[in-house]
Structure formats: structure tokens, C-alpha cells
Design a protein that fits this description.
Oligomer: single chain
Helix content: under 10%
Largest sheet: 6 strands, antiparallel
Order of helices and strands: EEEEEEEEEEEEEEEEEEEEEEEEEE
Number of strands: 26
Radius of gyration: 21 Å
Length: 284
């Protein structure tokens, strides 16, 4: 069975109801010291010594929110944070250079004035977790939310979602569709740059495992393995393999059904040409 990637979204009349509204967009025309680090899908962390003896700094690189650094005292309590909202804390000698760039740098110092900054690179994310390519268009999703669409290469697009000027989600579509869930909205980006987005029509986070029915009768089974949620879509075309949302949302779609599963188990579905309703739990 073939998983159809819809390349003609802009020619479809997508409808909205009281529970779901839809917007479509056309295809684009266009470390130092004793440090410890960990990484997962599009999030990487590293802990380094602070210039204040006995304290530490936790550095986090996130595709969804950019770079952030937390100054921790000897008990692990947060003393100060710098991130995209505040890139410099002069009082505590913290700063981030290039907070939303591919290679942000953390700086710290124990005194002000002409005291030099001690610089440490943030942990590096993989290429598919880092915005690159050419900006081809910007989508307005609502009064405070927009998405920038970037073309990396043929069959590879990325997107950044901003709310009130702050980065909140990152999407990579490379050989397969990518998606983001934020608030009540779902946004899907296809590898050819086409997009579809809707509000509502989804479950709460951490839903019950088992089967859910969509507006057109299609069934999605939510499973969990080793702490990771997975979804298996069954439509009139047959049953898809289980897709796991390990760190990033997974996407499954056929000609009329589109399903997104978030890493927290949130299930969001859209059915073309149907009044949209949240998935209905059928049982295990």
C-alpha cells in the first residue's frame, strides 16, 4: 500500500466547522571543564561548570525553542535563565550569542566591566533539526501565529512556527511529511513544500491506548512501546504500519485522511470533505 503525499493541496476546498478550521498554503515557488551532555530528537543538553565555584550551567539546544541556559546553584535550584526571551543577564554574567542560529554560543563571567567572557558552544543538533535553506514564504496562521517555510533542496523543506514573535515549533520534511502541534492547531509540511493546517479535532495529551474513530470512520490505534507512542491508521485502503512519534510528531495520510501523532500521544486528525470532530475512543 502506498502512503500518498498530497501534492495538490492547494486545489482542494478544505472546509472548517465549529470544532475545526483549516488553512492551506500553496507549494513554494520559491565545552570546557568537566561537562556532561545528552541528546534526543531535536533537543540536546550539556551541563558545564559555572564560573561561580560549585555552581553549574545547563545548556539546552532545542529546534523548537532555540538555545537556553540555566544557572544552577549547589542544590540544583535555578538562579537565572537566558533564552530567546532574554539573551543577556548582566547581573549574573550570562549571555547567548545567536540564540536561534545553528551554532549558538554561551558566554559567562563572574564580574562585569572589561572582564572577558568565557565562551562555550551549545551542543549541536543534527542537520534535520536545524533551519537551513532559502525562505520561500511566510504563512499567517492567526493573529499572533505565523510560519516561515524554507526550501533546503528538492524534496526537503523546513518550517519555523512563531507565536507573538517567539519560536515555538520546528518542522522538517525530508522524504516524508513533518508536523507540529501547538495549542489547538496542527500544521503539516510535505516534502514538496505544500502545507495543511487545522484547529481542533484532536485528543488531549497522554490519551488512553486503544482504537479511535475519525470523522469518516477511519480507525487509528494508539500503542506505546518503550515509553514512545505509536499510531496505526486503518482506512478503506488498508492498514498502515505503526508509526512512532519518537521526539517528533509522526504523520500518516491517504487520499482523504490525515493523522498526526504527537510525542506526548496527542492524536490529531483531519478528513477532507467532512465535518471535523475529535477522534472518538472505541476501546482497546
Amino acid at each position: 500500500m502506498r502512503t500518498a503525499l498530497r501534492t495538490t493541496l492547494t486545489f482542494l476546498a478544505l472546509v472548517g466547522t465549529a470544532t475545526a478550521s483549516v488553512v492551506t498554503a500553496t507549494a513554494a515557488g520559491a565545552a570546557t571543564g568537566a561537562a556532561s551532555s545528552t541528546s534526543s530528537a531535536c533537543v540536546a543538553t550539556k551541563t558545564i561548570p559555572s564560573v561561580f565555584g560549585g555552581w553549574k550551567v545547563k545548556l539546552v539546544s532545542s529546534a523548537d525553542r532555540g538555545a537556553s541556559a540555566k544557572l544552577l546553584d549547589e542544590r540544583g535550584h535555578v538562579v537565572s535563565t537566558v533564552d530567546q526571551s532574554r539573551t543577556v543577564d548582566s547581573a549574573n554574567g550570562l549571555r547567548i550569542t545567536g540564540v536561534l542560529s545553528a551554532k549558538p554560543v554561551f558566554g559567562q563571567r563572574s564580574e562585569g566591566g572589561s572582564t572577558p567572557w568565557k565562551s562555550t558552544a551549545f551542543p549541536v543538533l543534527s542537520a534535520d533539526c536545524t533551519q537551513s535553506g532559502k525562505l520561500v514564504r511566510t504563512m499567517r496562521l492567526d493573529s499572533r501565529t505565523s510560519a516561515q517555510i524554507f526550501k533546503v533542496s528538492a524534496g526537503h523543506y523546513q518550517a519555523r512556527v512563531y507565536q507573538s514573535g517567539k519560536l515555538v515549533r520546528f518542522i522538517d520534511a525530508h522524504g516524508r511529511a513533518g508536523a507540529a502541534l501547538f495549542g489547538s492547531r496542527t500544521l503539516v509540511l510535505n516534502p514538496d513544500g505544500t502545507t495543511v493546517t487545522w484547529t481542533g479535532a484532536k485528543t488531549a495529551a497522554n490519551p488512553r491506548l486503544g482504537r479511535y474513530k475519525l470523522a469518516n470512520g477511519a480507525v487509528v490505534k494508539i500503542v506505546k512501546r518503550a515509553g514512545v507512542y505509536g499510531a496505526q491508521l486503518t482506512t478503506g485502503h488498508g492498514t498502515f504500519p505503526v508509526e512512532y512519534a519518537k521526539g517528533r510528531p509522526s504523520v500518516q495520510q491517504d487520499d482523504v485522511t490525515l493523522v498526526v501523532l504527537g510525542a506526548d500521544g496527542t492524536l490529531s486528525g483531519y478528513v477532507y470533505g467532512k465535518a471535523q470532530k475529535p477522534p472518538v475512543y472505541l476501546g482497546a
